[in-house]
Amino acid sequence: MPEKTKHYDVIVVGAGPSGLNCAIRLADAGLSTLVIDKATFPREKICGDALSDKVISNIKTLPSPIYENFHKLVEKLPCYGIKFASPNFTELTIPYALAQNPDDAAGYIIPRKSFDHFMMKAAEGMNNLDLITGAKVIHVECNNSECQVSTNENTYSGEVLVGADGAHSITAQKLTGYRYKNHPYFIGLRAYYENVKGFDANNYVEIYFTRKLNPGYFWIFPLPDNQANIGVGLPYRDYRKRAINLKHELEQLTNHEPFFRERFAKSKLISTIRGEIIPMGLQKRQISGNRFILTGDAAGLGDPLTAEGIGNAFISGRLAAETIIKFLSGKNPEEYSLKAYDERIRQYLGKEFKLNKKLHQLTRYEQLFNFLFKRAKDNQSIINLFLKMGNNLDARKMLTKPSLYLRLLLGFKR
Ligand SMILES: Cc1cc2nc3c(=O)[nH]c(=O)nc-3n(C[C@H](O)[C@H](O)[C@H](O)COP(=O)(O)OP(=O)(O)OC[C@H]3O[C@@H](n4cnc5c(N)ncnc54)[C@H](O)[C@@H]3O)c2cc1C
DSSP labels for 45-66? Predict the structure, then answer.
């Protein structure tokens, strides 16, 4: 029988972006917090390694000097824009407004092994924060008065539990009955290459909605030291229906597709090719309950259009911390329910998910997609619309309006 240990205010299972972002904020607010992760850091995480402005703006609100130290990381590359291509390889380049300070780019590309280790280092040594790594959580349970978390060695107890344990979350399974196979998810393969040529000088991330993968895509993201993160992915439903061999598809694109041939001619694969899933925010799920909250991939918050998840992991980690701080600060915690978290997630991400779900459907119309890109290329008002799309939902909404396509069809420039 495992030994019982210290009682915490909060136990966070998982030390990825959502777990550590949440734990750092809880400890900073004076709550005794325990983080448990099965991995020892630095550890690999299969990912495209692209951090959006959602992540950067969130890091800025973490206790000092985390943001300052983030700038000192040499493993990262500032990114000043995105290049998209429609299924017939019509390219559209969307430069982010150039930051005045080159240290203040809207996005970065950094191997997750380095970024997650950086977050772990930021958490280490904080007051009120205990970190246990290399310990797999095998059981969790919550009742009206506390939560218990068991590894093979110990059982830990806390007032509240945060399930930040990723796509295959044991906390979501045990506390909500979640099974990832019953929900929509994106499946992706990632590989590291060196000596890929032809990147833009502003380190654009490149996303190609190829005919075979659309509404999924092939990505080429530059990294420091002449390296690149390359991958392919698509919704699992399409992957199954089309019986796609993703590894074969990646090899086809990098070795045989004429459009990319020159860029990969002298490149070298420097890692194994590995796959992982991202639960997509396409369906409503239980994300909180009696003394627990789920964050990031454990809550199924992958973007319905791009499947990017680090930004939403950060947002949910912050909203979870704020909800828990309020919950535990009341004389009678039950007066303020953790259910408030669901409403805050809805406020922050609800509209965006709804809209991106629609755009995800639109990308399925290949001809429309090609047409939009062809017309957009030489239409500054459409490029401006794409530029605004990053954090302006009204701009994104325009893309779902038939009137936009009618105007383009008729040759209107504005
Ligand atoms: C191929 C691919 C490409 C992607 N590319 C991008 C991208 O470029 N940009 C982007 O924003 N998002 C991307 N994502 C999504 C992104 O990786 C995730 O959304 C993000 O990592 C979620 O963060 P998290 O903290 O919720 O979970 P994770 O980062 O998965 O962290 C979960 C942590 O929990 C730990 N854990 C799991 N189970 C247990 C257990 N039983 N006991 C103890 N610890 C446990 C794990 O070791 C891990 O450290 C990609 C995903 C994939 C698969």
Answer: --S--EE-HHHHHHHTTSSTTH
DSSP class of 96: P
Counting ligand 1 atoms within 8 A of each CB, the residue from 310, 314, 315 with the most, and so the one to mutate, is 310
CA 315 to chain centre: 10
302 Cα: distance to centroid of ligand 1 (angstroms): 10
On whether both 321 and 288 belong to a single domain, the answer is: yes
pLDDT computed for residue 284 by the predictor = 87
153 lies in some domain: yes
> In this structure, what CATH number is given to the domain that contains residue 222?
3.30.9.10
- The closest residue, in CA terms, to atom 8 on ligand 1 is 48
Q: Are residues 28 and 145 in the same domain?
A: yes
pLDDT at 224: 97
Do 126 and 22 share a structural domain? Answer: yes
Domain boundary among 246, 279, 312: 279
Structure tokens at 365: 């119309």
Range of the domain at 270: 186-279
Residue nearest to atom 2 of ligand 1 (CA): 47
Residue 76 C-alpha to ligand 1 middle, in angstroms?
18
Alpha carbon distance 339, 342 (integer Å): 6
* pLDDT in the model for residue 287: 97
**What are the pLDDT digits (tens) for 50-80?**
999 899 999 999 999 999 999 999 999 999 8
What are the residues facing 131 on neighbouring strands?
A: 35
On the question of pLDDT at 198 being above 70, the answer is yes
Q: Is residue 100 part of a domain?
A: no
Q: Whose CA is nearest to atom 41 of ligand 1?
A: 137
- Considering the domain architecture, whether residues 209 and 178 belong to the same structural domain is answered as no
Domain check: are 137 and 52 in the same one?
A: yes
**Averaged confidence pLDDT in the chain:** 90
Nearest partner of 119 among 48, 19, 29, judged by Cα: 19
Same domain assignment for residues 333 and 389: no
pTM, to two decimals: 0.93
Residue of 161 and 99 predicted with greater confidence: 161
The model's pLDDT over 307-356, given as tens digits with 9 standing for 90+, comes to 999 999 999 999 999 999 999 997 665 566 899 999 999 999 998 898 88
Atom of ligand 1 nearest to the CA of 221: 8
- List pocket residues of ligand 1, CB cut-off 6 Å: 13-19, 36-39, 45-50, 136-137, 164-166, 170, 188, 190, 231, 233, 276, 278, 296-298, 302, 308-311, 313
Residue 385 has pLDDT above 90, yes or no: no
Q: How many residues does the chain have?
A: 414
Nearest to 234 by CA among 223, 222, 250: 250
